[in-house]
Amino acid sequence: xxxxxxxxxxxxxxxxxxxxxxxxxxxxxxxxxxxxxxxxxxxxxxxxxxxxxxxxxxxxxxxxxxxxxxxxxxxxxxxxxxxxxxxxxxxxxxxxxxxxxxxxxxxxxxxxxxxxxxxxxxxxxxxxxxxxxxxxxxxxxxxxxxxxxxxxxxxxxxxxxxxxxxxxxxxxxxxxxxxxxxxxxxxxxxxxxxxxxxxxxxxxxxxxxxxxxxxxxxxxxxxxxxxxxxxxxxxxxxxxxxxxxxxxxxxxxxx
Length: 255
Known about the structure:
This protein is an alpha+beta fold. The protein contains four helices and twelve strands. Strand 11 (201-209) and strand 12 form a beta hairpin.
């Protein structure tokens, strides 16, 4: 019978052949997924097996709903899909004395010589960047604040430190970027979080570089603190590396 393809009735042999190929491919993918499930002896399917089975079901459903198209509509040239542009995301809080910008450093992975899989070499971190206010621009004629981002100082929060911010109203952390090296102690960074009386908290950064000490403080309202904690709660599993496409070895313990 005729098949619905993008709103056009097609009953040619080419259309029927293409439809059969779609159904055969979908059924084969689903069969492979079931076969892999049997081979796992009841163990949970790894992500690659789940994706394989879901892809077969997706192809069948797309065909049955008439949403699958093997090519462009008649009379229109084929246009390859455009890659998604690179997106840079951050979140910043601008206050009178300084500004704080929150960025993400994703975990790093490496491929062993044997290949076939990747291992995590470093966990991700939450990068806090502090920039002082440009006091020379604070005049009655100006309505926007300016910040000296070329003089910024940064503090990379580790996973456990992020967890502490979620549960503790007051905490402090200290980092020595050169810990274990010859110039250990030349730069020491400390971040303290102190609650305010009317809600919210202060993020206080102190950076000591030999004899020079740089201090910046950014107050966060209760709403801004809630946003930051929501971001931290969302990012912790991803910065550790627990994502949907991470495979769990077959036969691994689930206890």
